[in-house]
């Protein structure tokens, strides 16, 4: 999946670590939250597979911006920038 800068996305709300050992690079507090693509960073080997010495396909990595108020109830207004791989992002209309 290729996402454009400015695309609205939602972080997939799945919990693969409940199925056994997992290395998830996407923070729990972002799952199900909406953000915006601000930069394409390139393609890199999937760290979720590399952590277990498995063959790792290359995946697109993005900077995604989130409003702190959308993440935490008592947050001061701020933007939160996070690196997230494409297989954790769902494009929103």
Automatic annotation (TrEMBL):
Q: Which Gene3D superfamilies match?
A: 2.30.30.50
Pfam families hit by this protein: NHase_beta_C (PF02211)
What positions does the domain Nitrile hydratase beta subunit occupy? 4-89
- Organism's domain of life? Bacteria
Please name the InterPro entries in this protein's record.
CN_hydtase_beta_dom_C, Elect_transpt_acc-like_dom_sf
Please state what the protein is called: Nitrile hydratase
Q: Which organism is it from?
A: Arboricoccus pini
Q: What is the lineage of its organism?
A: Bacteria, Pseudomonadati, Pseudomonadota, Alphaproteobacteria, Geminicoccales
């Amino acid at each position: 999946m290729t996402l454009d800068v400015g695309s609205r996305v939602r972080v997939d709300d799945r919990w693969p670590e409940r199925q056994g050992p997992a290395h998830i690079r996407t923070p729990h507090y972002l799952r199900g939250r909406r953000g915006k693509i601000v930069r394409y960073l390139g393609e890199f080997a999937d760290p979720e597979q590399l952590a277990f010495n498995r063959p790792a396909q290359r995946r697109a990595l993005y900077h995604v911006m989130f409003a702190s108020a959308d993440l935490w109830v008592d947050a001061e207004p701020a933007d939160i920038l996070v690196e997230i791989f494409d297989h954790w992002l769902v494009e929103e209309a």
